[in-house]
């Protein structure tokens, strides 16, 4: 699939593409993005309309996983996420497609669920095998939480 086709499938508007271009340079607030892209300052007549449009586009980029901001604080500095950068790199023909959740991660998640079900079904048993199953479950749970942390770091 061509890189243009992949970018078209991502359904980014021209404004969102411009925002991504600006966020590649550095973190920016909504006001800074409005000033740079539309060349209007906070006192101008068109500023509020442009600001509202920018906020909607930024919110859409957050929903799609391209951008994020800090949760607390008055000044919200937007930045690209690792997953957003990976999605943009996927559009390049020489780059392979990256996945958010890899095959090993899915295997660990499924093994954890299976061991939990098995542990719950054998919880009344007094067999020594139950101890091994108990240890295996908590080992898999630790690996699952580690994989989940890696996945969240890609998005946040």
Concise description?
With 156 residues, this protein is mainly alpha-helical.
What is the strand tally? Answer: 2
Rounded mean pLDDT is 83
Largest sheet: 2 strands, antiparallel
Order of helices and strands: HHHHEEHHH
Low-confidence parts: none
> Number of helical segments?
7
Plain-language structure description:
The chain is mainly α and 156 residues long. 65% of the residues lie in helices and 4% in strands. The chain has two domains: 3-90, Winged helix-like DNA-binding domain superfamily/Winged helix DNA-binding domain (Arc Repressor Mutant, subunit A, Orthogonal Bundle), CATH 1.10.10.10; 103-155. It contains seven helices and two strands, in the order ααααββααα. The protein has a two-stranded antiparallel ribbon. A hairpin with an 8-residue loop joins strand 1 (67-69) and strand 2 (78-80). Helix 6 (103-121) runs antiparallel to helix 7. It is elongated and about 75 Å long. The model has no long low-confidence stretch (mean pLDDT 83).
Q: Which key terms come to mind for this protein?
A:
156 residues; mainly alpha; Arc Repressor Mutant, subunit A; 2 domains; two-stranded antiparallel ribbon; 65% helix; 4% strand; elongated
């Amino acid at each position: 699939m061509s890189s243009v086709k992949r970018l078209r499938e991502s359904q980014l508007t021209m404004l969102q593409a411009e925002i991504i271009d600006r966020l590649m340079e550095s973190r920016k607030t909504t006001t800074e993005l409005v000033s740079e892209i539309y060349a209007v300052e906070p006192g101008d007549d068109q500023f509020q309309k442009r600001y509202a449009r920018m906020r909607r586009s930024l919110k859409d980029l957050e929903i799609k996983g391209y951008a994020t901001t800090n949760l607390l604080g008055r000044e919200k500095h937007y930045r690209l996420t690792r997953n957003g950068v990976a999605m943009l790199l996927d559009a390049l023909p020489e780059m392979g497609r990256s996945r958010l959740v890899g095959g090993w991660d899915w295997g660990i998640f499924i093994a954890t669920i299976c061991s939990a079900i098995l542990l719950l079904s054998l919880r009344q048993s007094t067999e020594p095998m139950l101890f091994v199953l108990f240890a295996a479950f908590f080992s898999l749970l630790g690996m699952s939480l580690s994989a989940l942390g890696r996945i969240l770091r890609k998005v946040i």
